[in-house]
Automatic annotation (TrEMBL):
This is Toc75-like POTRA domain-containing protein. One of its GO terms (cellular component) is chloroplast outer membrane. InterPro entries: D15-like, POTRA1_3_Toc75. GO terms for biological process: chloroplast organization; protein import into chloroplast stroma. PANTHER family: BACTERIAL SURFACE ANTIGEN (D15) DOMAIN-CONTAINING PROTEIN, SORTING AND ASSEMBLY MACHINERY SAMM50 PROTEIN FAMILY MEMBER. It comes from Brassica oleracea. Residues 5-56 form the Toc75-like POTRA domain.
């Protein structure tokens, strides 16, 4: 997922673009918590710094086992009910 142009460094901050970006991130279900912390930029008067903190969900694993059997010579015929 790419950050929208309106939220990149050097562009005028747009709160609606920020809300849309969060709306797009949430359905991914990759993060258990998303924090957005805007603060004044100490170096550039009138500018802001927006810090986004993402906390990933705990990683989980699943064990799956399968059993495959191949029976040689078995031919199964299925009736064609629709061809009557």
């Amino acid at each position: 997922m790419e950050l929208p142009k309106r939220l990149r460094q050097g562009y005028v901050f747009n709160i609606e673009a920020g809300k849309q970006a969060l709306t797009n991130i949430k359905p991914l279900r990759l993060f258990s918590n998303i924090e957005v912390n805007p603060r004044p930029d100490e170096k550039n008067e009138g500018a802001i710094v927006v810090e986004i903190i993402l906390k990933e969900f705990e990683h989980k694993s699943v064990d799956v086992s399968t059993v495959w059997n191949i029976v040689h010579g078995l031919v199964e015929e299925l009736p064609h009910w629709y061809l009557v």
